[in-house]
């Protein structure tokens, strides 16, 4: 994501009491290379091998079907993320292209745009760009060991309300090198949509998933992985903003967490390969071709109080912060996990793994 517009906004933010007065804003923006592609989901389907659909996972190497509910960082030995103290796991569903003959091909992921002198994130092809925003440094409570959450509904195929309008969106890149990559995500309906783009995107598709920013202060998780977190009383906050007051049931402000994935759909842009009825041909591994079912899973795994220190430090931008240590991309990419479920992730498939979808 390009930041000329947004960085101007953060300057304004620092001068407005709503955003913490002169404290500024901290925005960690860093890449995490892929640690594994697997059909596992330790949040929604703990212990199940396989789970219903395929995920792409980044972060620490403790990811498995039955992850500890304790401190993940004490069990991990490496991470694919730029910050070497972040052993969290971040995962989303994979995206597939459906050809006219009914077969499916996984859509590869690209690296992130070069920003903040961050070469690491440009080399995470197959990975995820992660953001942690502290809109009020010193007054944001970092997640605790054992914290987990899920945002989105994998079964959603439409949306009637606007609750998640600023939390789940897609940008259709207008050209190569992240063409049209400006302005904050999910804020402008002319730039971003809640559904998968319905046309060929010359530079691929960017997807963004934002998480709630209020916590009940008691539960590290709940049965549906959502009830312990909430949105401000005025609704989801814009990216980089504090938003309204947290509800009395969830009074603790937590970092604004966002995932960003660049789907390289460019190799599938030939109109002759698209459905004859003109509909768009991309499906998430859940079987969703609307995009409304986009969702993100999170298991906190930062070492000690490293994230809290960063959230308390004003003005950290990008993949550098005075309180955090970095690692080289070569070290990150050497961290991996062997898939448990043995499935083809690169070839053409007659159906999506775990789903029995009718052939076109």
Describe the structure.
The chain has 360 residues and is mainly beta. Helix content is 6%, strand content 21%. It contains three helices and 18 strands. It has a seven-stranded mixed beta sheet. Strands 2-3-4-17-8 form a five-stranded antiparallel beta sheet, with no helix packed on it. The longest helix has 11 residues, at 4-14. It is globular. Residues 9-22 have low confidence and may be disordered.
What secondary-structure arrangement, pairings included, does this model have?
Blueprint lengths: L3 H11 L11 E7 L1 E5 L16 E5 L29 E5 L1 E4 L5 E3 L21 E7 L13 E4 L16 E5 L19 E2 L11 E6 L3 E2 L13 E2 L21 E2 L2 E8 L18 E3 L11 E4 L6 H7 L4 E2 L10 H5 L27
Parallel strand pairs: 1-18
Antiparallel strand pairs: 1-7, 2-3, 3-4, 4-17, 5-6, 5-16, 7-15, 8-17, 9-10, 9-11, 11-15, 12-13, 12-14
At a glance:
The chain is mainly beta. It has helices spanning 4-14, 306-312, 329-333, and strands at residues 26-32, 34-38, 55-59, 89-93, 95-98, 104-106, 128-134, 148-151, 168-172, 192-193, 205-210, 214-215, 229-230, 252-253, 256-263, 282-284, 296-299, 317-318.
Number of helices: 3
Beta content: 15-25%
Approximate shape: globular
Terminal CA distance: 36 Å
Work out the number of β strands. Answer: 18
Radius of gyration: 19 Å
Largest sheet: 7 strands, mixed
Low-confidence stretches: 9-22
The order of strands across the largest sheet is 10-9-11-15-7-1-18
- Give the averaged pLDDT, no decimals: 91
Order of helices and strands: HEEEEEEEEEEEEEEEEEHEH
Specify the helix fraction band: under 10%
């Amino acid at each position: 994501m390009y930041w000329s517009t947004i960085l101007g906004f953060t300057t304004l933010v620092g001068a407005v009491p709503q955003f913490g007065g002169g404290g500024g804003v901290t925005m960690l923006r860093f890449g995490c290379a892929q640690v594994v592609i697997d059909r596992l989901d330790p949040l929604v389907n703990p212990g199940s091998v396989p789970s219903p659909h395929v995920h792409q996972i980044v972060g620490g190497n403790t990811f498995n079907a039955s992850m500890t509910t304790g401190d993940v960082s004490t069990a991990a030995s490496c991470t694919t993320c730029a910050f070497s103290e972040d052993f969290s796991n971040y995962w989303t569903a994979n995206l597939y292209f459906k050809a006219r003959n009914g077969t499916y091909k996984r859509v590869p992921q690209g690296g992130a745009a070069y920003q903040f002198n961050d070469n690491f994130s440009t080399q995470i092809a197959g990975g995820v760009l992660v953001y942690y925003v502290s809109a009020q440094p010193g007054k944001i409570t970092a997640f605790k060991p054992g914290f987990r959450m899920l945002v989105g509904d994998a079964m959603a195929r439409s949306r009637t309300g606007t609750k998640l309008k600023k939390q789940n969106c897609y940008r259709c890149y207008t050209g190569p090198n992240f063409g049209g990559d400006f302005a904050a995500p999910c804020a402008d309906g002319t730039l971003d949509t809640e559904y998968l783009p319905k046309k060929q995107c010359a530079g691929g598709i960017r997807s963004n998933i934002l998480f709630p920013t209020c916590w009940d202060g008691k539960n590290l998780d709940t049965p549906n992985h959502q009830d312990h977190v909430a949105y401000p009383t005025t609704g989801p906050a814009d990216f980089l903003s504090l938003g309204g007051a947290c509800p009395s049931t969830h009074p603790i402000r937590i970092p604004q967490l966002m995932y960003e994935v660049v789907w390289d759909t460019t190799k599938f842009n030939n109109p002759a390969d698209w459905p004859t009825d003109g509909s768009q041909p991309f499906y998430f591994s859940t079987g969703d071709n609307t995009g409304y079912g986009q969702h993100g899973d999170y298991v906190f795994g930062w070492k000690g109080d490293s994230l809290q220190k960063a959230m308390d430090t004003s003005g950290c931008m990008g993949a550098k912060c005075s309180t955090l240590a970095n690692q080289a991309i070569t070290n990150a990419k050497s961290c991996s996990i062997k898939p448990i479920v043995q499935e083809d992730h690169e070839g053409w498939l007659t159906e999506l793994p775990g789903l029995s979808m009718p052939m076109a």
